[in-house]
Amino acid sequence: MLMSELSTQDIFMFAQTCRFNRAAVDAYMRRAFNFERWITPFFPSGTASHFRHLQAATGALITGRAALQFFERSRLSCTVLDVAVHRKFLLSVGNWLQTNDFIFQKSVCGASSWSDAAKRCLEAVLTDEHLYLLFEPSVAGVMEFKNPNSGLTAKLIAVFECPLAYVLDYHSTVAMNFLSHTEAVCLYPQMTLIWQTGARFWYRGAHQDLDILTYERDGWLIEEYPPTKYDARELLQQRTVGDAFCWTIDLRFPYQPTYPSYANSWLASDWLIDFRIFYHVVESPHLLYSYVVWVGGGDQRASDVVASYASNDTNTSMDINFAEYMSTYYVFIEEHGYHRL
User: Fold this and answer.
1) Fewer CB within 10 Å: N-end or C-end of the chain?
2) In what order do the strands lie in the sheet with 247-250?
3) pTM attached to this predicted model
4) Is residue 165 domain-resident?
């Protein structure tokens, strides 16, 4: 009961006082961050487990305001659940939602039916100027499904290449949080959860302002770069998912496959007049999931890393091997430096 009243910072400080208190904090964390109990408003207990298996099969991520609420240890009170997925898995996730009491409502592209919305999304091209004006550049389409019994909405965000790219394309560091089937990750926990502040990235239009207002109404201060309070080590260097600056929570998924999120990396930079995040997307027929990695500037493509590593004569998933390879690469960068823009 005591720990539920403590701030995130106080909980971690309490855990460091002695071994007994650390064990007590660990037990509390397992209860406080129970995914299947937390997601119950959208997916009842049995369905929640099925949803996690769907995430495992498709790489779908829970993002947005709901993901942030998970780290706040608050009840899932938002009425919209954002789910980002590679568009090649769009039909699998959309059909699953419809078999679990969610009914297609609308698509931002204006399609009046699920089949038409999916078709338009699958036919969209990355350079579509109309799409760029509506969404972040990684998004191919957005569809909403509503449960008439609960009144809750699942928003399905179909991305061109990588769901994590969508997270990194958010308006500010405050919203850079996600839940996979294996773990929950807050990329900027010190700024977001302790200082309740965030750095705003380059401007993309009025829809971004409206989204930022919802966070500011809930108490976050989202500022143009540089924010009033920040740690340059957290904000301005090459980062990897799960590094010392992340808050990563194991969601205890006992089945395969696992999502080796530590293969992902990015660079935030105050280059020229913009504060932006840089990464390359890695996709390969040898990988179940897609990844974002930062391997240097210029026109170098991260896919070259895969091409030089993955054998063309195998059809097996190499996600774990790839992640371990990239982890070794990141250690090398940390020890010997990297090309900063």
Assistant:
1) N
2) 103-107, 139-146, 153-159, 80-86, 61-63, 177-179, 183-186, 247-250
3) 0.87
4) yes
Q: Report whether 164 contacts 138 (CB < 8 A).
A: no
pLDDT band at 66 (very low <50, low <70, confident <90, very high): very high
Together in a domain, 55 and 2: no
Contact criterion met (CB below 8 Å) for 189 and 178: no
CB atoms within 10 A of CB 102: 24
d(CA 182, CA 288): 15
- Domain of residue 313 covers 259-336
What confidence score (pLDDT) does residue 94 get? 96
Give the model confidence (pLDDT) of 171-204 as tens digits.
Answer: 889 999 999 999 999 999 999 988 989 888 865 5
**Is-contact 268 235, C-beta < 8 A?**
yes
Cα–Cα distance, 58 to 270 (Å, whole number): 34
**What is the C-alpha to C-alpha distance for residues 107 and 312, in angstroms, rounded to an integer?**
39
